[in-house]
Amino acid sequence: MSMFTRNEKASDTNTDETVRPPRETPAAPPAPAAARPAQPVAQPLSRPSQAPGVSVISKSLKITGQLESTEDIRIDGEVEGDVRGVSVTVGNGAKVKGTVYGNAVELAGTIEGKIEAEKVVLTSTAHMSGDVLHRDIRIESGAFIDGHCRPGYGKSEAKPVYSAPKPVATSMGLAAKPSDAALKT
Amino acid sequence: MTTPPLRTFRTTPRDRTDAEFPASVLGTAFTAEGFLDTDGDLHIHGRVIGRVCADRLVLGSGGYLEGDVIARDVHIGGRLTGRIFALNVTLESSADVTGRIFHHEVTVEKGARVDARMPWRPPSYFETLVQLPEPRQ
User: Which residues, in sequence order, are CB contacts of B17 under 8 Å at separation 6+?
Assistant: First the structure.
């Protein structure tokens, strides 16, 4: 019987405290406040009203994999993989290894791969290694291009800019280590 | 594609300047599959499948994340399936979490839906985390 009195005990008082692994600090409010950043926890950070459609990949973010958006994407960081958006801006200092698809692509950074877009703008700091498939292109003085520029966008070989999001596999295994097949589709 | 190495985060809040580490924001229409690594803040309002390393991760209430999260601070307002490795974890009332939450301090707001084990770990565990444990079934 004595083995099974756990529930009764727990309901009494804070016997849980004695069972818990020892902590350096008691669970009193002052201690966590010191460990946390100044920003209060109660502040709702994830309000839907804050939720933007435009995505910003800032300079410290590196993404290995595929990106897709039905709205604008601004990249200031590093992307290894394909990018699909409506209007894609690759900022100065940003780097993309892969194909960038979009209606409008503005490049001020580096792309190693391909651009497939209706409107392409290469600014003076652009560094483009690879082919550009476009319908309308503007190249500023100072831009670097190593590749073909072809005005064939929208013809047979060009893929649609954006197709409805595919259903994505939802297994935990994939989440832990996305397989190559999943990333390439 | 090779798995990038795990980016360990600082367990003490750094003197952050927003100009130095601007936040990345992934909008509602955004979908990503793969590995996301940053030293700064990351706000996810869209859909991400893969591993996320950040200093602070905020998953918006419409956001969906499937995979492992390694961060100093994690705020979840959306749906998460996977594991969290973070010193401070806050689950807001709109959160829906399935998996495991490795934490040092955790806050769960009333209304949050949590189907997860929450193992407590000392800060040293997160400092020395160089490889994630194999997920248990």
Answer: none
Which residues contact residue A46 at a Cβ distance below 8 angstroms, ignoring those fewer than 6 apart? B58, B59, B60, B61, B63, B75, B76, B77, B78, B92, B94
ipTM for the complex shown? 0.87
Interface probe for B, chosen from A19, A24, A56, A60 (most Cβ of B below 10 Å), is A60
Q: What 8-state DSSP symbol labels residue B78? A: S
* Among A185, A89, A70, A103, CA closest to B33: A185
Contact A63 B77 (CB under 8 A): no
pTM for this model (two decimals): 0.73
* Residue B125, C-beta contacts closer than 8 angstroms, at least 6 positions apart: B102
Q: Token pair 């009333």 is at which residue?
A: B110
Per-residue tokens: A84: 């699909």
Distance (Å) from the alpha carbon of B34 to chain A's nearest alpha carbon: 4
Percent helix, percent strand, percent coil in chain B, to nearest 5? 5, 50, 45
Length of chain B measured in residues: 137
Q: Which residues of B touch A175 (CB under 8 A)?
A: 49-51, 66-68, 81-82
Residues of chain B found within 8 Å of residue A66, distances taken between Cβ atoms: 32-34
The string of pLDDT tens digits covering residues A38-96 is 444 445 555 545 567 789 999 989 999 999 999 999 999 999 999 999 999 999 999 99
Pairs of residues, one from chain A and one from chain B, whose beta carbons lie less than 8 Å apart: 179
Name which residue leads in pLDDT, A121 or A42.
A121
Chain A contact set for B119 (CB, 8 A): none
CA A173 to chain centre: 20
CA–CA distance, B99 with A183 (Å, rounded to integer): 23
Chain A residues touching B62 at Cβ < 8 A:
48, 51
Residue B36 sits at the vertex; the CA angle it makes with A80 and B78, to the nearest 5 degrees, is 135
